[in-house]
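Most newcomers find our protein records easier to grasp once they have seen one. The structure tokens are whole numbers drawn from a learned vocabulary of backbone shapes. The record below serves as our worked example for the rest of this section.
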Amino acid sequence: MKEINVTVIGSGSTYCPELIDGFLKARDSLKIKRIAFMDIDERKRTIVGNLCLRMLKNAGIECETLLTDNLDLALKGADFVVTQIRVGKLPARHLDETIPLKYDLIGQETTGIGGFFKALRTIPVMANITSRMEAICPDAWLINFTNPSGIITEYVLNHTKIKCIGLCNVPINMLDDVKAAVGDKADITYLGLNHLSWISSVLVDGEEMLPKLFEPGFAPTVMKNIHDDGFDVDCCLHSAHGFPSSYLQYYYSRDKKLEHLKESEQSRAQVCMEIEEDLLKMYADEQLVEKPALLDLRGGHKYSLAAVSLIDSIANDKQDVHVVNIKNAGTLDFMADDDIVEIAAVVGKDGAKPVAVRKDAYTRHMVGLMRIVKDYEKYTVEAAVTGSDDAALNALMLHPLIGDYARARACYEEMKEAHKQYLPEFYNK
């Protein structure tokens, strides 16, 4: 059994008990020697952290524990660092979701101009975290769940020396849905970017089963944080020729999504604030020793399974397959080698090695969207690192959900001012 030291940055997240639950379920292969819970929010760090401690104690797990706001102290001796931070917390997300609506732009926390500003706020903080990791635990693995996960991983792997794998719970939910429909033995091809992905082939005994996923009766899981407007079968089967992730509803049904967001009485951030407060009240109950069912309403379904199984594979050199965000490294011939893509990879002690993708398993439609959105992501990282308005506006003009310059520029200026305290590269020149 492998002993590991784990540091959770952003441990005040109400998702954190989900992560601990995952470690408890993996106790036969992973032994926690030390776990540090780090967060700058004292209230949430204390409430959530104490529940996590009770969960460990109730399960009979004896390990060293630490609750702290000191990053350096938390990183000491870490083998794995899990990042799940939200810079500006839910009030900043509310701004990301509501300001764009004034300009007839979709407001969403990971894509479009909302996701763009979440990345701008997050990258400077990730720069500090990775800098301290390089000084304190340079051999540790960074498992990044912080959204937008693909862009954050793009920054870490191309601008720091840290070993990093980006992770999301969307792929594991999609793959499980498909396996439930066609069987566990299916050979499934999954590819794309984070929150821009498809299942493009489903082979069972050599027969392509993808069209069956669009037949009546198949009900894919839509992430809890996305209003389900459905997908047009002709668009997905005949144009994209792939089974899309929930987030592609923003691309394929833009007008419907914008209309729904404008008509909603609350932003998703406001809904999450209410859920979070209810969860914190539950967590504060000293009799509670397990994660409550209400947590599933936050959209993090199977988050712990994705995170802990990945850590288990690295720690125990399992050489099994996970869908992760890593460098393309020649896997998809239409993407650059250093582009971060979301693909299947064999994971062991040396990290993630991409699984080859058949050239007939993706379409021009997928290629086109991935390339343009990747250029948007590259410009976003450049803007966050340099504080360049030119790079920022180039990013916004490339993104398929934005486009119109006058609206993009006006929205950008308002959002930049609204998030001023979190954008040091733009304001501290």
